[in-house]
Design brief:
446 residues; 18-stranded antiparallel β-barrel; 5 helices; 26 strands; elongated
């Protein structure tokens, strides 16, 4: 059932990133001798598998910029490399030593000051500056963010992190985009494409469903019922439409029958102007071929821009803090269409790629790849085959199973039943040795 509501929630909920950083002074551990240049190597273990601690010596001379990001054992953490990239871009390595500490270490400066980040149970995240002069003290600050600003202040130079520069640029561009509400025929096309996602939210999860017809003329209601082995015809989604075939109310239900979401759509002169999700009102405006949905956050604003390219709805979303000094926590999530592939990025890093193709007697073929950093998280193929005029079958194969293209390793994962209007009326999901059924009722006015 989670699959049904995924798109509803993603359209309404805020994407945000939070960070928790700390610097902790600990008792010195047994050290392993390491040079400063080796400090950015991968975490060190001794040959017998025991945990070790590096001892790093920092010589006098050039100013030293240390970025400390050490993860405790048995701690799940994402290594954010943005700040070290910022430092390498913003500071001259011939005039400063930039050191990235990723391992539990004991750091000794030539003027006998020390920095202890050695306890394996603990995580550390901080910025440390030493001028390289014998008589000057270390300057430290907790957290990784705004490292460029911290070190620039110590060096008495003026520099800004790229995400602060980008935040100012994004705000300026978005202010210009939303200054006037410009409605054109292209605006209506984008709006209608977005409203169709609300009409059947599972379409964003099963992209092949967009190939089927959807008749909204004189449509009054859509009811979606969910069934499986122990659940018989449970109402999970109910959408009410106005005379123009536009959704005006959407309700989703939990397995207990209680309301999970209650969304109202408000129109002015036939154009969507507000979305009320029961907790907050989302404002909607237009700029020719762009549809802009925005809402206020406690400390900023979220803006999503929708466009159409080759009849595919694409989204670019910004979550921006009011205070540009907190721009480290800003996010930009963007979908782009490149060579028949929909590529989704998070702050410039690829999250997933969906490549769609059509072949004779095979109306839909898709390659899907998702990423975590530079690593492939998931990879599979999907194909849809027309069995007859009213039945289509969906097959899926994991990446490992499709290495040998001459062998058919695709497994049946769903069937789609069409009604007399060529609309999806029944979806049967067949994965994990179970069968789940979505029955879709369309109610039209006479």
């Amino acid at each position: 059932m989670r699959l049904i509501f995924f798109t509803i929630l993603s359209l309404l909920l805020t994407f945000s990133v939070s960070a928790q950083n700390r610097l902790v002074k600990k008792v010195k551990s047994v050290p392993k001798e390491t040079s400063a240049n080796e400090a950015a190597a991968e975490p060190a273990n001794s040959e017998n598998g025991e945990l070790t601690v590096d001892t790093i010596h920092i010589p006098k001379g050039k100013p030293t910029l240390l970025l400390v990001q050490v993860t405790g054992i048995n701690t799940a953490a994402y290594k954010d490399t943005r700040e070290i990239q910022e430092l390498n871009t913003n500071f001259d390595k011939s005039k400063t030593d930039i050191i990235y500490i990723k391992r539990h270490s004991f750091i000794i400066f030539e003027n006998n000051q020390t920095l202890d980040v050695s306890k394996h149970e603990d995580s550390y995240a901080s910025k440390v500056f030493w001028s390289g002069k014998q008589k000057e003290q270390l300057q430290t600050e907790e957290g990784l963010e705004n490292s460029t600003e911290f070190f620039a202040k110590q060096l008495k130079v003026k520099k800004e992190s790229s995400y602060i520069i980008d935040a100012k640029k994004h705000k300026k561009e978005l202010a210009a985009l939303t200054k006037k509400n410009i409605i054109t025929d292209k605006s209506k096309e984008v709006m209608n494409a977005l409203l169709k996602l609300y009409a059947l939210s599972i379409k964003a999860e099963l992209r092949e469903l967009s190939m089927f017809n959807e008749d909204l003329k004189k449509l009054k209601e859509i009811k979606v019922y969910y069934s499986e082995k122990k659940i018989k015809k449970l109402l999970t989604l109910h959408i009410i439409f106005n005379e123009e075939g536009q959704p005006v109310n959407l309700k989703s239900y939990k397995s207990s029958g209680k309301t999970e979401a209650d969304v109202n759509f408000i129109y002015e002169n036939g154009m969507l102007s507000k979305i009320n999700d029961g907790r907050q009102i989302h404002s909607v405006s237009y700029n020719n071929d762009k549809m802009i949905v925005s809402k206020k956050l406690d400390d900023g604003e979220e803006i999503k821009i929708y466009t159409l390219e080759n009849n595919i709805l694409l989204e670019k979303g910004y979550s921006l803090t009011n205070d540009d000094n907190l721009a480290y926590h800003n996010t930009v999530i963007e979908e782009k269409l490149e060579n028949d592939c929909i590529i989704k990025t998070y702050n410039g890093q690829i999250l997933k790629k969906e490549c769609i193709a059509k072949k004779p007697n095979q109306p839909f073929l898709m390659d899907y790849i998702s990423y975590q950093g530079e690593d492939i998280l998931e990879k599979y193929k999907v194909k849809v085959i027309k069995k007859n005029e009213t039945v289509y079958e969906r097959y899926k194969a994991d990446y490992e199973e499709t290495e040998n293209e001459s062998k058919d390793n695709f497994k049946l994962t769903a069937t789609y039943q069409l009604d007399n209007k060529k609309q999806i009326s029944v979806i049967k999901l067949l994965e994990n040795n179970s069968e789940k059924t979505l029955k879709i009722d369309y109610i039209y006015s006479k």
